TrEMBL record:
InterPro entries: dGTPase-like, HD/PDEase_dom, HD_assoc_2, HD_domain. This is HD/PDEase domain-containing protein. It comes from Aureliella helgolandensis. Pfam families: HD, HD_assoc_2. GO terms for biological process: dGTP catabolic process. GO terms for molecular function: dGTPase activity. Signal peptide: none annotated. PANTHER family: DEOXYNUCLEOSIDE TRIPHOSPHATE TRIPHOSPHOHYDROLASE, DEOXYNUCLEOSIDE TRIPHOSPHATE TRIPHOSPHOHYDROLASE SAMHD1. It comes from the Bacteria. Residues 64-203 form the HD/PDEase domain.
Length: 469
């Protein structure tokens, strides 16, 4: 086995014999140096202790209240493991990557979620111009005096170097392989959150892949500057892909979780429309929410939603049902998959969120026929796969080995029917369904058949404009 050069062995985070560690579930020690601990103790990282990893999933799985802080430590631990492995097995990589690049990668792994705000993923799925991306908030946290000082004095890094690495399209000269380790088809983020989310939710689905064997099988496709696997990791990778598929099906896109998600999305959208959008415009609105969410925790966000909704009568019950002391989630009355109802799925999936709001309002009017008290527009919610698709699975598997620079690779999708079926062909279309939810206090008043509801939904979708945002 190749041994990396002296400068890389001198990187204390990779020495493997650190005296200090932080204990996280399930019975794992995260070795930390003094400069790692300095970052961990900043207010920006400590804030992540008050932001749950799964947000609304806790409405269904009460144990799923673990935090982004815990997940961040888990990802950092895996980052160190993967680096030690790659530097040990690939002499070409070890001779070319610099300790500066490795430091950027390690800090990015530790702080990759620092820009997250409460419930940001379902709100980012709205695709609205005034909702910031969590990556865009990362630079503000990394530039805070406490973090900036540590990065500069103890790591020799500038905040923009880390934030660029965390962006969707990094422009720095850091090795694309390192970017692939943190954000790729098989990355340390997924390796940690699948197992951690499964553990805390109390389900087995995300823990059935061998992360240790998977890490030992990682190699580098130097022609494409990307992470790949050896044949020994094929089964472990297939099981990770299957774990992700089932976790989306049974946890992340569980119908009750999606009810809460639809309520949250409509609540934020309607509050913004009612209070700010008309007079401020998208740019000013984005700045307002950005400054607010930059510092908020889960509980502070919930209080904000409850306070804002009190001034808007039609939204009060929506906010209280989601964030109040009595849980009153909307009831699922129908769901439509790509396989069983392709017409409805195609009409509503990957459409701009204002289109879903418009369709839901029209459906509410149709369902109100014959009712003494018409349904409010907010009494009917539509949930559909968002505009942004899941990243397609592009990863190579080594077919024949020579030196590390002349190995032959093929797309894993060509070698594995499991990966081809679950990670590409079926993911967005089959896991993510279109659903109709109705307010719990109105659902018993409405009379419809499965066929009549489908017809009404198709009619509503057909009559709606599809203009974006």
């Amino acid at each position: 086995m190749h041994q990396p050069g002296p400068s890389l062995l001198d990187l204390p985070e990779l020495s493997g014999n650190l005296a200090n560690s932080i204990r996280i579930p399930p019975e794992l020690d995260v070795p930390v140096t003094s400069r790692v601990m300095a970052l961990v103790e900043t207010p920006q990282m400590q804030r992540l202790k008050r932001i749950t990893q799964l947000g609304l999933v806790g409405h269904v799985y009460p144990g799923a209240t673990h935090t982004r802080f815990e997940h961040s430590l888990g990802v950092y631990r895996l980052a160190c493991e993967v680096l030690r492995h790659l530097l040990g097995v690939d002499s070409h990589f070890a001779s070319r990557v610099t300790d500066h690049e490795l430091k950027i990668f390690l800090v990015a792994a530790l702080m990759h979620d620092v820009g997250h705000w409460p419930y940001c993923h379902p709100l980012e799925d709205l695709g609205l111009p005034w909702i910031p991306k969590h990556e865009s908030l990362a630079l503000a946290h990394l530039s805070a005096p406490e973090v900036h000082s540590i990065l500069q004095s103890q790591w020799g890094l500038a905040p923009h170097e880390v934030s660029d690495f965390l962006s969707e399209q990094p422009t720095s000269g850091v090795s694309p392989v390192l970017y692939n380790v943190l954000n790729g088809p098989v990355d340390i983020d997924k390796m940690d959150y699948l197992q951690r989310d499964s553990l805390h939710a109390g389900v087995p689905y995300g823990r059935n892949f061998d992360s240790g064997r998977l890490i030992k099988s990682l190699c580098i496709n130097h022609d494409e500057q990307s992470l790949a696997i050896t044949p020994k990791g094929k089964t472990a990778t297939e099981l990770l892909v299957f774990a992700r598929y089932v976790m989306f099906s049974e946890v992340y896109w569980h119908h009750t979780v999606r009810s809460a998600t639809a309520m949250l999305q409509r609540l934020v959208y309607s509050i913004a429309q009612a209070t700010n959008a008309a007079e401020l415009g998208a740019e000013a609105l984005a700045n307002n929410w950005r400054e607010l969410w930059l510092q908020q925790t889960d509980s502070e966000f919930a209080e904000q939603m409850l306070e804002c909704s009190r001034r808007i009568p039609d939204l009060a019950s929506l906010a209280c049902g989601l964030f109040g002391v009595d849980r009153r989630l909307y009831k699922r009355v129908a769901q439509y998959s790509h396989a069983e109802n392709p017409q409805i799925h195609a009409a509503l999936a990957q459409r701009p969120y204002p289109h879903l709001v418009q369709c839901a309002a029209k459906l509410a009017k149709q369902l109100s026929r014959g009712l003494a008290r018409p349904l409010l527009a907010t009494d009917v919610l539509l949930d559909a796969p968002p505009v942004k698709l899941e990243v397609q699975f592009r990863m190579g598997i080594r077919l024949a080995s020579g030196t590390t620079t002349d190995a032959v690779f093929a797309p894993l999708t060509q070698q594995s029917p499991v990966v081809r079926a679950l990670a590409t062909d079926q993911f967005d279309s089959f896991v993510k369904q279109v659903r109709v939810f109705i307010a719990p206090d109105r659902v018993q008043e409405i009379s419809f058949t499965e066929e009549s509801l489908a017809d009404s939904l198709i009619a509503a979708a057909s009559s709606c404009s599809t203009s974006p945002h």
